[in-house]
Structures are given as structure tokens and as C-alpha cells.
Amino acid sequence: MTRRESNLILAGIVVGLIAAAASLAVFGQRMVAVEVFGALFLKSLRMVVVPLVLASVVTGIAGLGDVRKLGKIGLRTLGYYAATTAIAVLIGMAVVSVMRPGVGVATATATVPEKVQAKTGVGWESILLSFVSENIFKSLAEMEMLPIIVFSLVLGGVLTTLGDKGKPVLAFFDGLNEAIMKMVRLIMWFAPIGIFGLVAARFASAGGPEVWKEMLASLGWYVAAVLLGLAIHGMIVLPIICAIMGRRSPGRYAGSMFPAVLTAFSTASSSATLPLTIECATERAGVSKRAAGFVIPIGATVNMDGTALYESVAAVFIAQAYGIHLSPTDLVLVFLTATLASIGAAGIPEAGLFTMVIVLTAVKLPLEGVGLILAVDWLLDRFRTAINVWGDAVGAAYIDRVTNRAIPQ
After folding, report:
1. What is the DSSP string of 213-226?
2. What is the CATH number of domain 3-406?
3. What is the pTM (predicted TM-score) of this model?
């Protein structure tokens, strides 16, 4: 895709968002009717996610050459994700401690949401077991991304050791990767209409302006705390990392990744946005295919900067709402559990709820507190997903610089 075509699509996405806002102002809740356009776009993206992950990870591993380099690159990738997630949690805890949005919030009517109750019986062993699938075809069919990535990493590594016997298989995956990326470029032409449908329908289904005003009246400071924390991480911390560790202009790089970030906001799904994230990184930002194919799929699965920040804010907010004092030890526990759980819970359905349960349980906070914030969770989910994807992209820039230095082109 040429730069001109890519810019046309980006302009179309922006127009789609503006049209969604304008149509909501005019037609209100009747805009739920356009949900079909968003659903079609989302299903089109999800259709290519699994083959893209399989092909891009295998070819990314093959691009490293000597499979022994995988360990060092893998450790750097996971180290980057762990470090940025920890920074995000610290930012969230600092912002919520200063703003104190939970003070004075009514808690009498709060109840434990049914979805949260379903997660209370899930243990850490479930996370470990989710890394490996006993039936990879079942995992492929059900889009269980973590075992798919583990399988792809092992398969790619093994193929690089087979010599001539492995070359035809690697050539197949390379061709499959190119074909899927071409499909992604075709899907991107539908992005403006799809994003218009997703945003307009979701905001319309959440109620009209009166409902939003009521929601923000009770949780406005909480929403402000989350958004401020995300803004600090996404607009200050990650750009600094991009400049220092990725050696790229943060503004220019962010502009290249903008379609993916907007799509992440619209879909509220890092996995669904994955094809566009790789497309933007390789075609618009100039990240090598081996780095993007290796780093971004892993990031879309385990890197949750925005989610971890959100959950640290939510935990302290709930404590403030219930008048529970968190000691320094409790705050350390919030930090550790929010960081580790957000990285480790990738294979669990509705991972955000699961990690929230872990954090609240660790410091003995009432699970009923989740009921206080569910009304705005759907909105904040979009912002934190956008930060997750932006963090993946910055990680790809960093690893691309490292691999380009270590491996001849």
C-alpha cells in the first residue's frame, strides 16, 4: 500500500469518527441500527488474526536466523513489556492517590457483578495451563491466542534447525504471511465505514446525553483519573521510550501508527486490531517484518499497559470509596499483582475482570466495588486498549533497532 493510499484511509477513519459523533447528536439511540457495519468490519479483522499470527510469528522467528538469538530477543521483548507495565501501574497509583476520586462515592447499592463472581474460582494454575494447548486445532478455531503464539514460536524455531527440509515450509509461511497482509490492506479500505458503525452503535447503545451526564456526575473524577494516567503514559512515557530506546521521532512514529490506535479505540480489542498494527508498523513506520511479526503478536497477547494502569486506579478508587486505608504494604501488593496479573492472564477469557479479581483479593478489598465502575468500563476500555496497542508499537520499534544492529540485513 502506498503512502498516499494509507493517508487516504487514515483521513477516512477520522471522517468516520466525526460522522459518528455528528450522527449521535442528531439521531441519538437510533444509531444502534448501523451496528451491522461495525460488526462486519470487526469480523473481517478477526477472520485474518489467527492465520496472521501463525504466519508472522513463524516468519519472524525464521528472520532471526540462528534460533539461539531467540532467547536474547525474547528476554528483551518480555523485559520491555514488564518494565512499561510496571511504570504504567506506578503512574496510575500516583494519579489516583493525588486526585482521590473515590472519596464520598456512595457504595450502598454496589453488588458483585455476575461476571466477576464467575472469575473468583480461577487460580494461577489456570494461567500456567493456558500457555499450552492439548489440541492446537481447537485453539486455532477458538482464537486462543496465547497457546497459538507458543506453538508458533516453537514451530518457527524448530523449522530453522531443519536445513533444506525446513525451507519449503518456511517459504509456505512466508507466502501465507504476504497473502494475509494483502487481505489486511483490502480490509483497511472498509475501515472508515466499519469504525463509524462501531463507534456510533456502541455509544448509542450506552444511552443518550442524559444518561452520560448522570454517569459522569457520579464517576467523573474517576474517569478523569484514569484518562490522566493513560495520557501521561501514552503521551509522555512511551514517546520518551520511543525516542531513546527505539531511536525514532515519537511524533512521526505515532502518526504512522495512528490508524491502528484509532482502530483499537473503536474495537476495544488489541487482538482484533493486530492485523492493522502490523500493517502500520511495517508499511507506514518502516519496522522490519521480522521484528513486527515477532513482537507485536506477543504484545497484543501479554502487553497490557493501559489495562494494568486502569486496574491500579480502580483498586485504589474502590478502597477510597469504602473508606479502607491502604498501607504501604497494601500499595506494594497492588503494584505487584496489577503488574504480574496483567502480563500473565492473557490466556483467560475476559482477562481484565480476572486481573481485577486478583488485585482486589490480594489486598482484601470488596469485590462489590467492581459494580461501582462497570457503568463506565466500556468507555475506558477503549482508551486503555489504544494505549496497549501504542505500547506494542513502541516495543516493536525498540526490538527492531536491536535486531537490525545484531543481525545483518
Report:
1. HHHHHHHHHHHHHH
2. 1.10.3860.10
3. 0.87
